[in-house]
Amino acid sequence: MREIGSEFWIESIPMETTNEAVDTNISSWLSIGGDYCLLYSGRTAIDYVLSDIPKTIRSVYMPSYCCYSMLQPFLDRGIKVYFYGIELTDNGISYRIDYEKPCDIFFAISYFGYLSTTIDAEIEVFRNKGITIIEDITHRLLSKQMYCDKSDYSIASLRKWFPIPSGGLAVKRSGKFSKRSLKAPPPLINTKISAMQIKADYIKENKGDKQAFLTMFSRFNKGLQYEYRNIEIDSLSRRLLAKADFFSIKQKRRENTKYLCEALKKNQRFVKSMISTFSSDDCLLFFPVRINTKEREALRNYLIVHDIYCPIHWPITNEAYLNVKTRQVYEEELSLIIDQRYGIDDMQRIVETIGDFYSTK
To answer: What is the pLDDT of residue 321?
Structure first.
């Protein structure tokens, strides 16, 4: 039985072509501002945007529910980070924002691809105060409304959506980025490419050393913490993006999401969708569910035993800034896999495996 989840693999290597032809294809779906740049990772994109802002940046106001990789570029620059609250409600997620909070940057995130979690109105409030807005559009990247037009900058991690070795996106809403030369990706990118190819053999032909590619993926991900600034996307990832079938990707993810929405209603006593409203305009990154804190790790391990690898968003990175309600989000969330590698049969398998786990309760 094949694995569901975990790192992407590379199906095939596209032929090399001119950068002009590649960039033309990519621009057709990334024309969402005055200028954009394809970079090494999401944190590279954040740092790239920070280097473009002309004013002195002393502080940023960002959500308490986030990944450490989003914090790192600010912390590495000595920028003070303040947090606004994120809480679970019966229908989804709510924000606890202090609109009088003094800050130089307001950092916005919408979650998992649900347009109901966007905070576009809040963005406009801070924009009207003259505060620079950076919006992380990673989760809403393939939804119909992929960004807020009131943001000054948008950033995204493209690696979360596509089978590419590297990939971050920085967008400047108005005007051009200040010119600067970008470094080529470090040799570590070859480790990631090799890992994706070895995993392809493992998935498609059931051959190869699983531990070998897991170790290589881990080495690459750890390396991102130490070398991420001012690095461009690798050429293979650029070519793969140019060939991506966005219509098919969105269609597959929406079909899988719709199936899980309906099928999991039978298990709501144990597993509840984190966000209650799913629109046909939404395109999800993952399907987030709420699990009783005491059972989440046991369920996750049970799924792993059955070759289903569901991530948690996110590991707690800083105990100091968490209140009880934000901690609840971290401790109850589990991300079910709905990406374009899989179909309805795979979704059925996920649901049945969850049902098997709770059948003994």
So the answer is: 66
